[in-house]
Task: structure prediction
Amino acid sequence: MTDGMDDAESRLARIERLLESREREVAPAWRRATRGESRWAVTAVILVAVALQLVLPHRLTLHPYWALPVLELVLLAGLIAANPRRAEPRTRWLRWLDLALICVISLANGWAADQLVAGLVNGTEGKDAGPLLLTGGGIWLTNVIVFALWYWEWDRGGPMARAVGHHQFADFLFVQMQSPDTAPPDWEPAFLDYLYLSFTNSTAFSPTDVMPLSRWAKMLMMLQSSVSLVIVVLVVARAVNILH
Result:
């Protein structure tokens, strides 16, 4: 009797393992519940954005010039204190803190870009080519970071929603989603993938190997390309004019 029960239990265990393996084969990692994404890359990039804002000329920033960077650091410190390691579903309320932080960074960089473009058009900015290129490059790089944060935060409901696999349909189609054989079985998009997406969109002014699928993703990429194009064209044109 005991041997029969042991044999039945072992068969059940094998069946469960078989079903689990088939489930893993059917559902890729980016479509099923997984462990929350590490926050180290996001934290490091946000610190870079804050540093870039602090070194901008004060005439291009909202006054007092230190107010928004300090607010960003306070919000970031709150996020780190509440959830220092991973974006996990049990801390979903922190998403509002994430969104507030991204909004503040966007506001600060949007204001600086607007002031730079207005100054170039009116002839009040760009007396020296070197400082102009550094300023324009800092705003452009911060713009890359800002949109990477937005892509990361909104794709399939954000990192916490992606961790539990709530959304079946992706907003961005990565190569690994189309060709799963090119990546490990546990692959899913992380922040650095969205940073790469933002960088290539800012340099090519169009999608490269990552395709936007939802309308909001297309509109956001179009906005980023437009901002990047305006900054690059005006800054480079003015710098070339100064050098000549």
